[in-house]
Amino acid sequence: MARINTNVPSLIAQANLARSGQELGTRLERLSTGLRINRGKDDPAGLIISERIATDIAGIEQGIRNSERASSVIATTEAALVEISDLLNTIKGLTVEAANSGAISDEEIAANQLQIDSAIQSITRISNTASFGGLKLLDGSLDYVTSGINSSEIKTARVFSASFVGTNSLQVEVDVVASAQQAALYLNGDMPGSLTDGVLASATTIRVAGANGVNELSFGSGTSLTSVVASVNDRTALTGVEAVLINGDPTSGVIFRSVDYGSDEFVSVDRIGGDQSASWFTTYKFVDGTPLPDYSGGFPWSGIGTTLTSTSRDTGVDVQALINGSLANGDGLEVSLSSPNLSVELLLDESFATDPTATASTFDITGGGALFQLGQDINALQQSNIGISSTSASFLGATLVNGTVQYLSSLQDGQANSLRASAARRDFTATSEVLDKAIDDVSVLRGRLGAFERNVLETNIRSLQSQFENLTASRSIIQDADFAAETSALTRAQILQSSGTTVLTLANQQAQNVLQLLG
To answer: How many alpha carbons fall within 13 Å on the CB side of residue 474?
Structure first.
């Protein structure tokens, strides 16, 4: 058949030439861009997943940069804390030197006080000026904001981390379930025939030991328990043990008790002199779990068989409390909780910590803290919170002294714990306790920041880097062109393009054969 109006072989050749041309264009595009997927039609499903991976990669890259920046913030903060720690150690040395009052003059104490004042001012200055890119680090700007704290129940509250998931504030409920107790031993003041009417029946020597140390006291026959109490209290700084008359009456007896609360405190009273066969000097303690009695109605000596047991040693008990339903760690009057959504340390008031029947105390954390975005998605699981409290002298060293919370600023000249005041009362105990607590505060803060940097930031960076590598490799497999395969396909397309052109030429020439039929 010879038709000239429709050249079917030419049409077939044109169609195949167009397809080979498109194939050639595709291969050239992939080889020039290095990408297998340049537009949606190349691989719709592949495009979707590769773009999702690209989004994850972008977030991860920023998460790595965020973590590295956060690490720089922590390093800058710790550098400032190192200087504060050095200043506190300097104050410690000056205080210990001033306590050597037998070998140091008043003028030297005054000179030491000047150095302490200068060091305290420097601590506050560093606290107020330490910054990173305009961000204040140690002035309390990165601390949590609390409200509604009842100071008659909670003396101090330190929030280390808090998670505000789906809320702008976090309520904290503190419920004491077991009271804090001092170590306590009891001595009957009226045992007929031996210790009568609050007077020692014979000469004796007792050994009193506590958390601070041990001391021996000797008494003559006929010594009143009032004098025994006074002698024990004169050595409280050496032993950590104080004595008090039950109901203020020597005939009721004596309580030997630790100054502080908690399982680290103990009281030991032994009779080491006199007639050892005499049993009149016998101390007792309440059986475990029995709270201290109310002495206003008299001491229940008649209940020795059920509530008291004879012993020469007793140990204090830490407070136990629930914080937002979780059992907190107790240490004397302090409780602390570390959980994923709340990390807090509270110093409870004595009356609250020793009363399990008291109504739970509540307060709110209304904001604040340093929030670090560590992952590619903005949600609570990929964020971390940490509070950096102020390190100024008016915040460091919070210590309960005689029912009042005192701070490092109390060591300045003219304040309650200055060297002059401590030397005048010949007692540096409060000064030392406040200073030691301030040193601990800085050390603990440095430790927490170090743990955050090591266990959170550095591990997060390594994890994100691993994800970045794997996701990048996965995206490369999906999107990047295989040059070996594409080069081979290009050669094939070039051959097809050339042969297609030749075939189209032949197809177009075939119609000219009809002219031979026309003669």
So the answer is: 16
Residue 153 CA from chain centroid, whole number: 22
Tokens of residue 132, six digits: 């990173």
What does the alpha-carbon distance between residue 439 and residue 488 come to, in Å, rounded to a whole number?
72
CA 12 – CA 503 distance, rounded (Å): 10
CA nearest neighbour of 369 among 71, 141, 138, 74: 141
Report the Cα–Cα distance between both ends of the chain, in Å, rounded: 18
State pLDDT tens for residues 410-459: 999 989 889 888 888 777 888 998 999 999 999 999 999 999 999 999 99
Per residue in 453-463, pLDDT (tens digit) is 999 999 999 99
What are the backbone dihedrals phi and psi of residue 216, each rounded to the nearest 5 degrees, phi first?
-105, 140
Helix %, strand %, coil % of the chain (to 5): 45, 25, 30
Buried b (16+ CB within 10 A) or exposed e, 26-48: bbeebeeeebbbbeeeebeebbe
Q: Indicate the helix (H) or strand (E) that contains 446.
A: helix 429-451
- Rg (alpha carbons) of the chain, rounded to whole number: 41
Range from 77-81, 100-104, 281-285 carrying the lowest mean pLDDT: 281-285
Q: Does the pLDDT at position 361 exceed 60?
A: yes
In this structure, the chain runs to a length of 519
Bridge partners of 188, per DSSP, are 253
Which amino acid, residue 461? I
Q: Place 58 in a pLDDT band, splitting at 50, 70 and 90.
A: very high
pLDDT at 149 over 60: yes
Q: Is the Cβ–Cβ distance between 373 and 457 less than 8 Å? A: no
Average pLDDT estimate for 192-220:
82
Q: Would the pLDDT of 43 be above 70? A: yes
Q: Which of 279, 286, 267 is nearest to 207 (CA)?
A: 267
Q: In 10 A of CB 206, how many CB atoms?
A: 24
- Judging by DSSP bridges, how do beta strands 326-327 and 329-331 pair with one another? unpaired
List C-alpha distances in Å: 441 to 81, 110, 295.
10, 27, 38
| pLDDT for the residue numbered 305 | 47
Does position 292 have pLDDT exceeding 60, yes or no? no
pLDDT of residue 482: 82
Residue 94: band (very low, low, confident or very high) from pLDDT cuts 50, 70, 90: very high
Burial of 147 from C-beta contacts in 10 A (0-12 / 13-18 / 19+): exposed
| Secondary structure of 138-195 as H, E, C letters | CCCCCCEEEECCCCCCEEEEEEEEECCCCCCCEEEEEEEEECCECCEEEEECCECCCE
Indicate the angle between helix axes 8-33 and 483-510, nearest 10 degrees: 160
Which residues share a beta bridge with 400? Answer: 405
Q: How far apart are alpha carbons 89 and 429 in whole angstroms?
A: 17
The two tokens of residue 461 are: 């960076």
Instruction: Please give the Cα distance from 512 to 370 (Å, whole number).
Output: 86
The span from the CA of 353 to the CA of 374, in Å, is 39
CA 227 to CA 230: how far, in whole Å? Answer: 5
